[in-house]
Amino acid sequence: MSTGLMVQYIVIGAIVLISALVTFRKLAPQLTNRWLAAAALRFDQPGHAAWQRSLGRQLQPKQATGNCSDGCSTCGACGPKPPAAHVDGQPLEFRPRTK
């Protein structure tokens, strides 16, 4: 296997891995936050090397600040809006087909 082909496989593998992580983070944010918090606790312990502690602090998930922009949904103000009232005064009427 040539060096160029190996570099190509590594680059493609990294791109696929990063895109899978981004997708998983968007689809399951609470689960990924729990995983990041567990990894951060494991790395950021006394007695570990400085680079491990630094990595642990960087892995800590962002905390909800209570703003309407962070999407924490603790106050219920950011939730889905109730459906609008029916504007048309006539209800739908279904009739059987005529042959």
Descriptive account of the structure:
This protein has 99 residues and is an all-alpha fold. It has a domain at 3-59. The protein is 51% helix and 0% strand. It is built from 3 helices and no strands. It has helices at residues 3-27, 29-43, 50-59. α2 (29-43) packs antiparallel against α3 (50-59). The longest helix is centred in the first third of the chain and has 25 residues, at 3-27. The radius of gyration is 25 Å and the shape is elongated. The protein starts with a helix and ends in a 40-residue tail after the last helix. The model has no long low-confidence stretch (mean pLDDT 82).
Walk me through the topology.
Layout: H1 3-27, H2 29-43, H3 50-59
Residues in helices, as a percent range? 40-55%
Rounded radius of gyration (Å): 25 Å
- Beta content comes to under 5%
- Give, in order, the helices and strands: HHH
Distance between the termini: 71 Å
Q: Please state the average pLDDT score.
A: 82
What class would the helix/strand composition place it in?
A: mainly alpha
Brief summary:
The protein is mainly α and 99 residues long.
Name some characteristics of this structure.
99 residues; 0% strand; mainly alpha; 51% helix; single chain
